[in-house]
Amino acid sequence: MSTPPPQINRLTIEALLDTYAAGLRDRRLMLVHGRYPDTAPDIFTAKIGGEPRRVHVSDQTSVLGIVDAWQQHRSDRARDADVLVVTTGIGDEQLGWDVRGHAVKRRTLTVEKAEIVKQRFGVRELDSRLYGEPWLLEALLDAEPHDGWPRSGSLLTRDAAVKALVVARLGLDRVVDGETTAGLAIDADAMLVWSRTSAGPTRFLELDAVERGKIKEWLGETAGAAVPVLMSLVEDGRGQDAMARGLLAAAMADPATGPDTVLAVGGLFGQVRRSDILAFSDAVAGTLTRWIGEARHNEAAKQRVFSVIDRADRLAQEAGLTQALRGSRFLLTSFTAQLRAVAEALAASPDQAEAALADLREHALAALNTDRIAVAEMAVRVARWLSTEQPRVESVASGVRGHLAEWGWVDRALNVLWSGDPVGDVVAGQAYRTLHDTARARRDTLDEQFSQRLAGWTRTADQQNPGGCLLVENVLTECAARLYSESTSPLILLIDGMSSAAAVQLGEEAEREGWIEAVPAPPAGQSAQRSAAVSMLPSVTRISRTSLLTGMAGTGGQSKETAGFAQFWEQRRAVGVLFHKATIGGPSGHRLTEELASALASTAVVGVVLNTIDDALDHGQQGERTQWRINDITFMRELLAAAKGYGRPVLLVADHGHVLERGVNPGPAKASGAESSRWRSGSSAEDGEIILSGPRVLEGGGTIIAPWREDIRYTPRKAGYHGGASLAEVTVPLLVLLPALDVLPKGWEVLPREEATPSWWSQSRMPEETWPESVTLPAAAPVTKPRTTRKRAEQEGEGLFTPAEVEREPSKSQPPPAPTTLGALVVAGDVYAAQAEYVRRKPERPVVAAVIDALAEAGETMSPAALAAAISASDRVRRNMDGFIATLQRLLNVEGYPVLGLIDSGHTVRLDVHLLRTQFQLEKRRT
Fold it and tell me: Where do runs of H (alpha helix) occur along 143-249?
C-alpha cells in the first residue's frame, strides 16, 4: 500500500471487529491498515458478534514486528480466546502467507470510513454529500462519544452528521443540560453561552484548521451570521470577551457613526464585515436580555451579567468608545449617564425629567437596579408636585385631610430622596438633595401654616365642639362603630406612630393584595377621600392612643385602654377585646396566641395594638428604612389574613404620626422646660415653635410649646420623634379595608386607587388623540339574526347585564352620530362588529367606548374600581367587574391578542392603545 496509514482509534477497531465478526469465529488475527496511537489502550474488551472478547492491539511498522507480535500471541495460552489486532502501514505484498493466512479475509483490512460511520450511527444509508467530505468522515470517527453516536433512523443526513460532530467537538451537550443532540438548538444564544465556558473554546482551538473552518461555515449557515464572528474571536483568543465586544459593536448601529468610532469598533473585531458585526451585536443583546431576566431572581445569573457588562465598560474606556455608547441599553456607564440626565432634567421641568426617566426605564439594567429607578421616580414625582400651585392650609380639618390625601405622599417621596442614590452617584445625589431641600422648604411652609391654624383651633376645640374635625377620641364612634353590624365585626389595627406617609404605602399594598378600600360617601359635588383625625396634644402615645381606644380624651396605659375599649363596645351591645404586644405572639408553632385567634373567630370586635413603627423610632431601629410594608409590621400580615378569612372589615388607624431624624442639628435644642423629644413647657416660643393651649392639651397644665419644624428636638438623638405640632405628627390616618363588597357599610362607597392617589404621583397621562375632522367611519351594518337566536342568547347569557343594558340592534331609520373619540371609532368599525357577533349579552357600544376612552385618558391603566366609577357602571357590573372585563376582552382582544387585560395580579386593568389601533385598523386614520 502506497497511501500513508490513517490514524485510527479504539472505536474504529471495535467497529471493524463487529463488521467482520463472522470471520473471527475461527480466526484470532486482524490486520488493519492504520496507525494506533501509543496513548490509546492496547488491551480492552469488545463485543464481537454479540459476544464479549478480549482484544489486544499492537501497532507495528515492520514485517518482523508483525510476525513477532503474532507469534507471541499464539504462544500465550492465556490468549487462546483473545483477538490480536495489528495496525500497520506495511502492504500485503510484503507480508508472507504464513501471517496473512491466519488473518481475517487473509489480507490487511482498510478502514472504509463511510461504512464505519454508517455502522456507528446505526444507519443503512449516508447522505451522498458525505462521501465527498473525507474531513467529516474522519472527524466523525475520531470524535465519537463514549456512549456512541445518537441513532438517526435509516439515513444519516449531512446536517445531522455535522450537528452531531459540532455538539461532540465543542461540548455543547454540557452547556444545555437535559437536551439530546437532536433536540439541542444550536443558535447564537447557545453559542454565546458556550463561549463563556472555560473548556468549550479550548476544545475548538485544539481542532485542525480545516475542521475549524468547516465548522464555522456550517454554523454560519445554521445559526446565522453572528456565530462565525464569535468563532473568529474565539480563534483569536478573545472568546471570553466576545459578548463584551458585541455590546460595544452597537456604536456602529447608527448610519451616521463617525469614522473614528467605526475604526475603534473594527479594531475590536479584526477583518469582519460591518453587517456581520451588527448581527453579532444584536445576538449578544438578545442573549444578555434573557440573562437579565433570569438575574432578577438569581444571584449567580446576576454575577454573570455584570461580568460581561463590567468587561464591556473597561473595553469601551480603553477603546475610547464610552461617549459613543452613552445611548447603549446595556452598559453601566450608559445607565449612569441616563440616570444623571434625569437628575439634570429635574431642575429644568417635570416634563423633561419624565421623558428622561422614560428613557432610563428602557435601559436593560433598569430591571437590575430597581432601587435606583425607584429613587429617580420619587424625584420626578416631587418635581411634579413642585410644579403645582402652592397649596395653603385653610383650617385644621383641611390640613389633616390634605396631608393624608397629598402631602403625606410628598413626605413618602422625600423620605426616599433623603437617602439619595442607593449606590452613591455624586451627580444624582446632589440633584436629589437640592430637590429634597426645595420641597422640604415648601412642606415647612405648610407645617407653619398648619401650626398657626392649630393654635387657634385648640383654644376651643373639644369632643363636643370639634370645629369640623374628626377627633382621635371620636374615631371609634364615627368610623369603627359604622363597620359593626349584627353579622359583621371589625378588626381595629392600631399601628402606633404610623404616619400618613407609611399609611398610604400600606394602603397601596393592601389594595394590590385584594383588599377593597371604602370611605364615607361625600356630599353631592365633592370627591370621596380618606378620613383623617386630629391627635390629642401633645401628639404622644400615652394621650392619643388612650383617647382613641377608650373613645374619650384622657391619659393612661394599657390597662385603661383595655377596660375603656371593652366598655365602649359594651355600651353598643357588643363585645370588645383589645390585645397589646405581650398578648399577640403565640407559642412555638403558632404566630398568634390562642386567645387572639379565638377572638378573631368570634363575633367580638377585636382591637390589636402593633408597636413596630413606634418601637423602631424609639430604639433607633429605623436605620436606612425609607418605607414601611406589610411584612415590616410584625403580625400585620397574619392579622390581615385572619380578618379576610373571617370576613372582617379592617380599620387601619394610628394614634399619631412621626417625623424622622435627619441629622441636621448636632444635638438637642437649647430650650428650658423640655418634657419630651418634641414638646416642652414654657410661655415663650422660639423660631420653629408654636404655643398650644386649650382643653385638648392634656400636658403642661393645658399649655405646651411644640415645634412645627421637623429638625427641632429636645432630647438625645433617636431614629424619629413625635409629640410636635407638624402635620406628620398631628394627622391620624384612617384606612378602612374590606375583604369583599358585601360588607360595605350603608352610606359608604369604594375608594378607587386612582382617587386615593394624587394626580402628580402617577405618570403623566398620554397625549390626547388627534383625529382628522373628515374621518367618519360608517356604522357597522346591523346583524340580522333569527328571533329564536336572540331569545336563546338572552336565556343562556351570563347574567352580567340586564336586558336593558344589553346592546340592541341599531335603528335603521336614525343613523348614529359621527364618532369623535377613540372609543367611538373602535365600536363604530367593522372589526368590532365582527367581534360582537360572537359575544352574547354584550354591553352597549357607548359603554364599551367609555371604557376605552377612560383607560386611554388615564394612561392605559386603571383599577377596576376606578374604571367602574369612570363609566358610571351599574351596581350589577360593580359587583362582578371580573365578568364585565372578561366580556370586554372577548370584544376587544381580536384573534387573542392582549388588547385589554388584567395585570398586577388582577388589580389593574390595562389597555394597549397601540395594539388596539392596530387590531381595529385605526392607525391610518390618525393625524
Answer: 158-170, 188-195, 200-205, 209-223, 226-235, 242-248
Contact 746/521 with Cβ under 8 angstroms? Answer: no
Helical ranges in 320-423 per DSSP H: 332-346, 350-362, 370-387, 396-402, 408-419
Contact 805, 894 (CB under 8 A): no
Rounded Cα–Cα distance for residues 141 and 50 (Å): 21
Write the single-letter amino acid at 374.
A
Q: pLDDT of 148-194, one tens digit each? A: 888 878 899 999 999 999 999 998 877 655 455 556 788 888 899 89
**Residue 798 CB-half CA count within 13 A:** 18
Average of pLDDT values for 344-357?
A: 95
If residue 706 lies in a helix (H) or strand (E), which one and from where to where? strand 703-707
Does residue 74 or residue 146 have the better pLDDT? Answer: 74
Q: How far is CA 706 from the centre of its chain?
A: 45
d(CA 543, CA 496): 12
Distance from chain centroid for Cα 632: 21
With a CB cutoff of 8 Å and minimum separation 6, the contacts of 522 are 528, 529
Q: Beta strand 748-750 with 516-520: parallel, antiparallel or unpaired?
A: antiparallel
* Distant-in-sequence, close-in-space partners of 757: CB < 8 Å, separation ≥ 6: 409, 508
Given this model, what pLDDT does residue 169 score? 92
CA distance linking residue 724 with residue 535, whole number of Å:
11
CB 746 within 8 A of CB 547: no
Length of the chain: 927
The bridge status of strand 29-33 relative to strand 83-88 is parallel
Cross-strand partners of 516:
738
Angle value at C-alpha 683, between 661 and 654, nearest 5 degrees:
40
Local structure of 125: helix, strand or coil: strand
Three-point CA angle 772, 778, 783, nearest 5°? 150
Select from 696, 680, 730, 658 the least CA-distant residue to 496. Answer: 658
Contacting residues for 918 by C-beta, under 8 A, at least 6 apart: none
Q: How many helices (H) and strands (E) would you count in the chain?
A: 37, 23
Q: What is the predicted pLDDT for the residue at 297?
A: 87
- Cα–Cα distance for residue pair 774/267, rounded to 1 Å: 56
Q: What is the pLDDT of residues 118-136, one digit of tens each?
A: 888 888 899 999 999 999 9
Which residue matches cell numbers 431614629? 719
Residue 877 corresponds to which cell in the numbers above?
357590573
Residue 407 DSSP label: I
Tell me, what amino acid is at 913?
V
Largest CA-CA distance found in the chain, in angstroms, rounded: 131
Pairing of strands 605-610, 491-495: parallel
Q: Which residues of 329-345 are buried (b: 16+ CB within 10 A; e: fewer)?
A: bbbbbbbbbbbbbbbeb
> Residue 463: what residue type?
Q
pLDDT at 842: 86
Q: pLDDT for 513-567, tens place per residue? A: 889 999 999 988 888 999 999 999 999 999 999 999 999 999 999 999 999 999 9
Question: What is the signed CA dihedral for 9, 13, 16, 22, rounded to 10 degrees?
Answer: -170
Cα–Cα distances (Å) from 700 to 396, 656, 675, 703, 706, in that order, read: 22, 19, 9, 5, 11
